[in-house]
Design a protein that fits this description.
alpha+beta, seven-stranded antiparallel β-sheet
């Protein structure tokens, strides 16, 4: 079988606004096709005072053969103090595995691994005495207090840590987490208060057709203060596509990247669809919701999925219904 692999890394892309954090992982969502969401929050920094910064990293990877494929993404968000030490960390991972039967893509489970919880089945399969989400929580707790360099220095053999303290609660492969967390910490640039709380949310929509396997995943990390006001917001969308030609995946034409990563190459301006690129409009949305409460964000009016508010629509003309809904979930998770 011919094989195709694409790796794309988006380090924490930090734009104006404030974001701070707390992380207590929870998840909820739905099933095999359509839309699903996962959200987590972190409270490890709730008693800390002072300045902090928030960053995130998204690492999409696509591998495919003629009848099977895997869209896999590691998500990490961190809050760091003035010395670059991690105050809070949230990690999640999604993996969609479409397969062709007589040229038709079967349904896939759109839930993230955090969202699957016990359903992920490591314990039931006898592969571990702890589920994936429990082991990731152990990793998240372990990196609190460490810098990006110290995270990168976590000793590993064959992808698994050899550090006794970490391996006591985390026996899964962690090399992807290490890179994602370190990258998020290195690129943290959104200023917040260290007492703010951080929440993330991940929502995937299945856009698969007879012509392609396609998945669009909205990511959001927010921070809120003690009054429930958003102090920072950062969003991105991971877009994956794998064409189907003559009943098989066209493995040389697949793509999987985030819209912010693509930047100007996303091509809205070149196509004449807008005078602003997607990332610029996303930044306008981020700025608009910063300073609002969760109720005020939920009250943002839409018209056919686009902003009806004149101030928001002046800088953001893209469809934001999915981004808005996902942002609401991230705010709710920041507890």
């Amino acid at each position: 079988m011919k094989k195709f692999v694409v790796f794309a890394l988006v380090s924490a892309m930090c734009v104006s606004m404030a974001a701070c954090s707390n992380s207590d992982s929870t998840s909820s969502g739905s099933s095999s096709s359509g839309t699903t969401e996962s959200s987590t929050s972190s409270d490890s920094a709730s008693e800390v005072a002072g300045e902090a910064k928030v960053g995130f990293s998204i690492t999409p990877s696509l591998s495919a053969e003629s009848e099977e494929a895997s869209f896999s993404t590691v998500y990490a968000a961190v809050m760091v103090d003035a010395e670059g030490k991690i105050l809070a960390c949230d990690i999640d991972e999604s993996e969609f595995a479409p397969a062709l039967t007589d040229g038709t893509v079967g349904e896939v489970d759109l839930r993230t691994k955090m969202e699957k919880g016990d359903d992920y089945g490591m314990v039931a399969a006898g592969a571990s005495t702890m589920e994936w989400y429990q082991q990731v929580e152990a990793f998240e707790n372990y990196v609190v207090g460490k810098t990006a360099d110290e995270v990168r220095a976590i000793p590993c053999t064959d992808g698994k840590t050899t550090d006794a303290d970490l391996s006591a609660g985390c026996t899964i492969t962690v090399t992807g987490f290490i890179e994602a967390v370190a990258s998020a910490a290195e690129n943290a640039a959104v200023s917040v208060n260290a007492s703010d709380k951080m929440g993330i949310s991940i929502t995937t929509e299945d856009s698969t057709s007879t012509e392609e396997a396609a998945y669009d995943t909205d990511f959001c990390v927010v921070t809120v203060d003690a009054n429930g006001t958003v102090t920072s917001c950062q969003v991105d969308t991971v877009q994956g596509s794998l064409p189907i030609v003559d009943g098989a995946f066209d493995i040389d034409s697949g793509s999987y990247a985030t819209k912010k990563q693509l930047g100007d190459d996303y091509g809205m301006v070149a196509a004449g669809a807008s005078t602003m690129e997607w990332y610029q409009q996303a930044e306008a949305f981020e700025q608009y919701v910063t300073g609002k409460t969760g109720d005020e964000v939920s009250a943002i009016e839409l018209s056919e999925g686009k902003a009806a508010d004149a101030d928001l629509s002046a800088g953001c003309t893209i469809t934001i219904s999915g981004i808005l809904s996902n942002t609401e979930k991230a705010i709710a998770a920041a507890k």
